[in-house]
Design brief:
By secondary structure, this protein is α+β, with helices and mostly antiparallel strands. It is built from eleven helices and ten strands.
């Protein structure tokens, strides 16, 4: 997530610009830069573990359905800050051993078999909670993770735990349209980010060309990190819960021209001893 005042990463290095214009692994599978994969959701009971975690931390007090947890939460805990983050997302920045084990099993059995190389993967996934008519949400947050300091070689994984067709999910600009904007702004991420927030024609271009991501609970999406995307205001009566994961193929990591560092508060280093998990699982 970003906002109009976010610190945006940029580099003039030829290697960085080349990484923004290269042909990626996921692009070679599908020229839209995104592909849906199947898995057995019932084998990975994230729903129950997330509910139990929120009960243990005093946010809710009964085992409600995951898509109805807003009925037990306070307005303060559901209101997003300037970065479009609420307190429930924040508490899940640190989970517990049960969720950690389930996450590792998902990576081992569902993600790794797809890849043609060993991978490093995000140590703790990002759990997203989008509540009905969430206070503070913007409809202008088109961004990609590269703007926030992530390597362009990363891949994004998105897996819903609730019915994303009911509450919608997020919109994604196909890779060719995203690359068009990157090239239009001479691969200057700061300039592109400013235009998204200030130039209504650029905002309208994104609105007109994005696809709504609508997956079943037995599906997850892998997409190219260069694709611009944005959350959708949840206009339904259901909470939307999902998991974000960033991965990078080891061969591509080993060829990065420099160490990428996040622009956010934590200034995470995108290295195997900081942001990524590097051991076999």
């Amino acid at each position: 997530m970003s906002n109009a005042e976010s610190v945006i990463f940029n580099s003039d290095s030829l290697e960085f610009r080349g990484s923004l214009s290269r042909t990626s692994w996921i692009q070679s599978l599908c020229d839209t830069g995104k592909k849906v994969f199947k898995y057995n959701h019932s084998d990975y009971n994230f729903d129950k573990e997330i509910i139990d975690l929120l009960k243990d931390r005093g946010f809710i007090h009964s085992s409600v359905r995951l898509d109805k947890i807003h009925e037990e939460l306070s307005t303060d805990d559901m209101t997003v800050d300037v970065n479009q983050i609420n307190n429930i997302v924040k508490t899940c920045y640190e989970t517990n051993e049960r969720i950690g084990n389930l996450y590792h099993e998902f990576i081992r059995k569902c993600v790794k078999p797809i890849m043609d190389d060993q991978i490093y993967f995000q140590k703790t996934p990002t759990f997203r909670f989008s509540f009905p008519k969430s206070i503070g949400m913007t409809k202008r947050d088109y961004h990609n993770d590269i703007m926030l300091g992530h390597p362009p070689e990363e891949l994004n994984i998105w897996a819903p735990f609730t019915n994303s067709s009911q509450s919608k999910s997020f919109v994604i600009l196909p890779l060719d349209k995203s690359l068009y904007l990157l090239k239009k702004f001479d691969y200057n991420l700061q300039s592109l980010h400013q235009a998204i927030w200030k130039d209504n024609k650029i905002k309208q271009f994104c609105d007109d060309n994005t696809d709504i991501v609508s997956l079943d609970k037995d599906e997850f999406l892998i997409f190219d990190s260069r694709c611009l995307h944005a959350a959708i205001l949840n206009e339904s009566e259901y909470t939307r819960v999902s998991m974000d994961i960033r991965i990078i193929r080891v061969n591509e990591y080993n060829n990065l021209p420099f160490t990428y560092i996040g622009t956010g508060r934590r200034k995470a280093k995108f290295t195997p001893d900081d942001y990524y998990h590097q051991n076999e699982i």
